[in-house]
């Protein structure tokens, strides 16, 4: 093959073969294809799109560019979950023990966060002593023994995606649904699960700002999964306001514990039950979504989900006492109220800006090298639809610095208070199977 011919073919809207796509990925990853040709190719994809077949070929070529995790030594159907990312999204932390308590093996490979708050790994590291450095053998054994384990991302997972993502970032080609779908799915498939449940967020705080785009992305990812033999399904969920109340690492661990006890925020709890039901069913532990939901509610009610979270923490070197005594988690030195400047009803809470306010406090990373302050963040006191008086707190800032002016004013500016009440946005949108 010659790369110029492949670029031309895509430019003219023709369908590429498996061999052509694999050639591009292999030779771009090993450095034989220069960035200028890859850039032109990405831009052609951006404008002409990719068929379902092309997306599956691209995904598998990226999977095969690096390590693939072999989970076959773990008994049962391994189910993974992925969220396209939001603000204060505590669902993974809740779902790992919740689904495992229903008997589904959870072999979780997690990453660190960039932006608003940390990733699942950062959040777990808010627990004193918790470590994610397990050998593959230890990882497999722990999942077989306890049904759950969490490890850090292998260094050589989908190197083709890493290199392409960096190029997309500087060539204005990140926002292409076939490229996003294959990028996400390549990482999930390489991580080894048999079934994948996707939480595709839509709204202001999400990557996909409109429901139509979220649906298109979800459909692409489900189609890729199906074509390559992984049972894949997606739920569209709202991210026009932050999920739950807590945004920040230690604060989200506390929120997860409350949710596992059955006292969590309504929206976070519901999303965990919806995604968890799909995972339990995909894992073969229930015959219907209703049966799966009943099982999830039962392991919350009888405390086994929370207890299993404690066992996970203990197995990975952490202080399991935090599940009964969350004050053992890192605590910020100062708590500062963010007062409402007017009275009325909350009609909008721009999730991404509130996420920025949390990041400025130190809860997230602006660059990969930044260190996170695990104790800090924001706890919302109101959500869309709520009534508020002048001076009433909209949120509490947890900070290790007394200088919280910028975060305070960002929160105030990006929570809209109006005279007329609005309904709170619908949390769960379409399901794509
Ligand atoms: N997240 C990814 O992993 N890949 C993309 O292309 C976009 C978001
Ligand atoms: Ca939250």
TrEMBL record:
A GO cellular component annotation in the UniProt record: cytosol
EC number: 2.4.2.2
GO molecular function, one term: 1,4-alpha-oligoglucan phosphorylase activity
Swiss-Prot/TrEMBL catalytic activity: 2'-deoxyuridine + phosphate = 2-deoxy-alpha-D-ribose 1-phosphate + uracil; thymidine + phosphate = 2-deoxy-alpha-D-ribose 1-phosphate + thymine; uridine + phosphate = alpha-D-ribose 1-phosphate + uracil
UniProt keyword annotation of Glycosyltransferase present: yes
Oligomeric form and interacting partners: Homodimer.
NCBIfam families, alphabetized: PRK05820.1, PRK06078.1, Y_phosphoryl
Protein known as: Pyrimidine-nucleoside phosphorylase
Organism field: Filibacter tadaridae
Taxonomic lineage of the native organism: Bacteria, Bacillati, Bacillota, Bacilli, Bacillales
């Amino acid at each position: 093959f010659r790369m110029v011919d492949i670029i031309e073919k895509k430019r003219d809207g023709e369908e590429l073969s498996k061999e052509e796509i694999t050639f591009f990925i292999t030779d771009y990853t090993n450095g034989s294809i220069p960035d200028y040709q890859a850039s032109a190719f990405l831009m052609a994809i951006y404008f002409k799109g990719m068929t379902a077949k092309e997306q599956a070929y691209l995904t598998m070529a990226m999977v095969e560019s690096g390590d693939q995790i072999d989970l076959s030594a773990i008994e049962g159907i391994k189910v993974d979950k992925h969220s396209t990312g939001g603000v204060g999204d505590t669902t993974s932390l809740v779902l790992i023990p919740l689904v495992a308590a229903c008997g589904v093996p959870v072999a979780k490979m997690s990453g660190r966060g960039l932006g608003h708050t940390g990733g699942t790994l950062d959040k777990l590291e808010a627990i004193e002593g918790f470590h994610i450095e397990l050998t593959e053998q230890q990882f497999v054994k722990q999942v077989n023994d306890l049904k759950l384990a969490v490890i850090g991302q292998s260094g050589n997972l989908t190197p083709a995606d890493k290199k392409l993502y960096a190029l997309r970032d500087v060539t204005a080609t990140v926002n292409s649904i076939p490229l996003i779908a294959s990028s996400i799915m390549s990482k999930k498939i390489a991580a080894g699960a048999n079934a994948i449940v996707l939480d595709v967020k839509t709204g202001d705080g999400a990557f996909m700002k409109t429901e139509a785009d979220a649906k298109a992305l979800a459909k692409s990812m489900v189609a890729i999964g199906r074509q390559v033999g992984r049972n894949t399904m997606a739920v569209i969920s709202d991210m026009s306001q932050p999920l739950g109340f807590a945004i920040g690492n230690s604060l989200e661990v506390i929120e997860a514990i409350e949710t596992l006890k059955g006292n969590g925020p309504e929206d976070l709890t519901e999303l965990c039950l919806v995604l968890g039901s799909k995972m339990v069913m995909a894992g073969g532990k229930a015959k219907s979504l209703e049966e799966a939901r009943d099982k999830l509610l039962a392991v919350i009610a009888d405390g086994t989900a929370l207890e299993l979270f404690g066992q996970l923490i203990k197995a990975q070197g952490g202080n399991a006492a935090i599940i009964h005594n969350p004050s053992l988690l890192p605590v910020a030195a100062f708590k500062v109220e963010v007062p409402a400047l007017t009275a009325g009803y909350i009609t909008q809470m721009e999730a991404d800006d509130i996420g920025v306010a949390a990041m400025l406090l130190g809860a997230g990373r602006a660059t990969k090298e930044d260190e996170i302050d695990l104790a800090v963040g924001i706890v919302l006191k109101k959500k869309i639809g709520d009534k508020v008086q002048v001076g009433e707190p909209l949120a509490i800032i947890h900070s290790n610095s007394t200088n919280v002016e910028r975060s305070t004013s960002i929160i105030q500016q990006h929570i809209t208070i109006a005279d007329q009440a609005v309904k709170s946005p619908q949390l769960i949108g379409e399901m794509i199977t």
